[in-house]
Amino acid sequence: MSEQDTIKKLRANYGNEIINVSFLPRPYCPGGIENVKAIYLGCDPSNKHSNELPFVFAHESGLTVFNRFINAHTEQLREIGLSWHCVYTQNLCRSYFDKETSANRKLWKRVVNEYWIEALKSELTIFPSSIPVFLTAQILLEVLASNGYETINAPDFYQCNVSIPVPAESSKLGRRLIPLYRGKSPKFEISYHLKNKEWDQYRNSIINILK
User: Fold this and answer.
1) Cystine design at 96: which of 4, 19, 124, 188 (Cβ 3.0–4.6 Å)?
2) What is the pLDDT of residues 53-81, one digit of tens each?
3) For residue 40, what are the β-bridge partners?
4) What does the alpha-carbon distance between residue 155 and residue 157 come to, in Å, rounded to a whole number?
5) Distance between CA atoms of 112 and 166, rounded to whole angstroms?
6) Whole-angstrom Cα distance, residue 4 to residue 106?
7) Which of 108, 77, 79, 82 minimizes the C-alpha distance to 95?
8) Largest CA distance in the chain
9) How far, in whole angstroms, is CA 104 from its chain's centroid?
């Protein structure tokens, strides 16, 4: 199915809250699929600045408004010994919504469950099943995990009260899932960025998984 056909189908099923665009952002994989060590997954491309992003996560958009966002993710990857050249960066939902994810949770979850999970699962068959998926937001865990993992809060992972990865048999993608969040913890009043010493043990757990 072409991108235009996909957009038409989504708009027919879910209405004008799916934005009609001429193309969707492409996955970002500058190092080539042969060098991929992990899938780096976002929610969707919806934002307040552009509906014409060439790649997911606003890579190579030329818009400086996204620099801070990209840099934060670059630093996250660096903390676990990775770079953009050894991950396959994609969004679970490739289409644009008229609202950003945090303000659109109900519709977002419906569209994801009814369409995009199976689409992504099929897309990722180009990689061995051993390649894990990094989840950059809690809501991704809520829709992709099962067997109780979908209800686990970020602090339980980050304080190593719950072991990672989420096993493949508890993942709707059939791949191991690893939370790698970007937001701030209200419980600890610090961000989930791995540069924070609070998360040294968690960071080391991720590094060991990747070895």
Assistant:
1) 19
2) 999 999 999 999 999 999 999 999 999 99
3) 89, 134
4) 5
5) 19
6) 24
7) 108
8) 48
9) 16
Amino acid at residue number 195:
K
Q: What is the pLDDT of residues 101-135, one digit of tens each?
A: 989 999 999 999 999 999 999 999 999 999 999 99
Structural domain including 146 reads 3-210
Please count the other Cβ atoms lying within 10 Å of the Cβ belonging to residue 52.
13
Total of domains in the chain:
1
CA-CA distances (angstroms) from residue 122 to 1, 83, 114, 134, 142?
13, 24, 14, 17, 20
* CA pair distance 27, 100, nearest whole angstrom: 19
> What residues contact residue 166 under an 8 Å CB cut-off, 6+ apart?
141, 145, 149, 176, 177, 178
Reduced to 3 states (helix: H, G, I; strand: E, B; else coil), residue 57 is helix
CATH number (domain holding residue 132) = 3.40.470
